[in-house]
Amino acid sequence: MGRGYLTTIALVLLLLIDFAFRIVAIIVVPRNRRPSSATAWLLAINIIPYLGLLVFLLIGSYKLPRGRRRKQQQINQFILESTEGSAQVSRAEHWPSWLKSVVLLNRNLGAMPLVGGNTADLLTDYQRSLDAMVEAVDRAERTVHAEFYIMALDATTEPFFKALENAVRRGVTVRVLLDHLASLRAKGHFRTIRRLNALAKLGLVWHYMLPIQPWRGKYQRFDLRNHRKLLVVDGIVGFLGSQNIIDASYNKRGNLRRGLQWKELVARLEGPIVAGLNAIFITDWYAETDELLRREVRPADARPVADPADEIDCQLVPSGPGFRGENNLRLFLSLLYYARERIVITSPYFVPDESMLTAITTARERGVAIDLFVSEISDQVLVYHAQRSYYEQLLRAGVRIWMYRAPTILHAKHFTIDDEVAVIGSSNMDIRSFQLNAEISLMVRSRRFVAELRAIEESYRASSRELTLDEWLRQPLRAAIVDNLARLTSALQ
Fold first, then answer.
1. pTM of the predicted model as reported, rounded to 2 decimal places
2. To which H or E segment does residue 69 belong?
3. Please, are residues 424 and 312 in contact by the beta-carbon 8 Å criterion?
4. Contact yes or no for 430/490 (Cβ under 8 A)
5. What residues have CB less than 8 Å from 32, skipping those under 6 apart?
């Protein structure tokens, strides 16, 4: 048997293995995956077969480990039982006919009820938001629960860490959660950890969220992150929104060189909704520690509202890979389809999937006016170019795109539907936020609240320039190529 014959046999076997590999990929990859995502993965695996397979094995599954998914099911049932009967809402304003079905959808998906008797202050100034959180912690008497995607000790956030220290010294129970990889990437992370460990000696308890520590048996897809930002003090006062605990420049050398500053939106809440916000913290605490703080899930000590007209009805919608469905996406889609007059979307990272793009363009065909606020520049190169790839289709549909002028990064995340309903929280309108990140959204039914948010949107408009279709069509070909390539990568979820 000659060497040539053996070589031929080896080549035939390799071709058969390669063919079988591609057939298996066609069977396995599309299972329970969006068509666009499956197509992108199959394209990657076929163009760069072995590297593509390696990447797929690393980040191809967007599910949390089985143990965490089991915990999430237990948590959902626990929240459902502990919040039963709390869905009491005000009837001072006429409800839109469609709102009841959206409330039921959210309840079924995220186990949170709609509750009335709440108040909210919208904080648009970065420093003022931090000051308000420091003030709340300084007044804490029982508990402080802080959960942030990024926590970093720097000159701007030092007062917050000092407030945590003072609270611990007063005998307040202080618990802190921070996302592992996001905080690890922040400048000065180890200085932050040293400070938290020093506070731990005084009684503060802190943990990473979704840690990547395989030597401790803690591992999942590394880009499954907890993106929530919330603070609950005594179960009475709560904060949620887009802002992390870090300087407005994020302390990055490139940001400082370019003069970049992040613009955020935070809601300060009081009323029964704070108990729900606390319950979400408790679910994340349980996921990381196996400690279920049952005694701390109770109705908040609601303070009387001075004027009933100031009351707002709120519903919290947690979402993330621990849930069966994409809770935030389903909420957004239902509201987009119910809109009758006007939609205003603010999202720093706007990379819609097919269903959202269809909902937006369909709303335009129904005559709904739509404004989209994004940043003129971005700190995320791939997301920025993927986002740009949708501009032409949106502009041709009649969506007005407003680009917040550099060097500010408009990082706020919210949108309004007609004059009736608003959503604010941590969730961007992109595929990552729908599938990979744990997020928190707050749906609010209140004409007054929507009017306040609309005033904020108008302030964005004053600091933005409108992108027109004529301007966009003058983009160079090389920019379109980069944008479309980035769009393909956005589907690899």
1. 0.87
2. helix 66-82
3. no
4. yes
5. none
